[in-house]
Amino acid sequence: MVKRKGIIVYFQSKKVAKEVEKIGVNIVYLNPKANYLTGYVDEDQFEAIKKQCAKLRLVRKVEESLLDMQDLAFKE
Q1: 76 is a domain residue
Q2: Which residues have C-beta within 8 Å of that of residue 61, sequence separation ≥ 6?
Q3: What is the pLDDT of residues 13-51, one digit of tens each?
Q4: What strand order describes the sheet that includes 59-64?
Q5: Which domain does 16 fall in, by range?
Q6: How many helices and strands, by DSSP H and E, does the chain display?
C-alpha cells in the first residue's frame, strides 16, 4: 500500500489548479471562492512537491493536511 500525505494549497487564481496537478498532486477538492484546494501526494515525494508548489507564481501558502490519509481507503 502506498503511503500518502494530504496537502492544502492556498492560491490567488484557480488557474493554478492545473499547474499543481501537473506537478503530481491528486486533487480531491477545489474551492474557488475560498481560493484553496486539497489533495494528496506520495509520502516520499511530499517535501519536493511542497517546494515546487510554493514556487508557483499565484500560490500564497502550502500546508500539510492534518487529516491522516491512512484512515482513508483508495481503490487501486
Answers
A1: no
A2: 9, 10, 54
A3: 989 999 999 999 999 999 989 999 999 999 999 999 999
A4: 26-31, 36-42, 4-11, 59-64
A5: 4-71
A6: 2, 4
